[in-house]
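Question (not urgent): is this output format expected?
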Amino acid sequence: MTGIGERPLRADAQRNRGQILDAASRSFSKCGLEATLEGIAKDAGVGIGTLYRHFPTREALIEAAYRSELAAVCDAASELLAKLPPAEALRVWMDRFIDYMARKMGMADALRAVIASGADPYAQSRDLLVGAITPILEAGAAAGDLRSDVTADDVLISLSGVGLAASDRREQADRLLNLLLDGLRYGA
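Got this back:
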């Protein structure tokens, strides 16, 4: 991403940035604050100088890694809806949301450090997630496959509950997600 007045990144720089963000997400969600920038750079296949050119501070990297995870789960909603019937797209998206929640919970200490530095990585999260899931719910209601009286916020709160309660017990999370989807279909 570039800001106003900034040149777009070259293809190799975009690739490096993406590799750094992927490595950072894995490392911060697995190791929290114990993750080292040198280890992240090595995992990404770049030098530490390249990491610092893209992310001048540890907090900038943590926030960018979180926002990258958020963007991936949000972008997946429209991609899934384009390929699958709405109820199937919703169920696959629910799995991705649980994965996102697990990574976010793994990054909790690192994200608290970002907040302590004065940033708010969560500032737009809810709005972005609501915007991502709303078209799936609307398409499902229009097709008669999903209830029309349930809001995106209702679904997100339910998914968050599943994520908090069972993200480390994937079989149980899957059963709860199936139950939630059954409830969203009931009376449609």
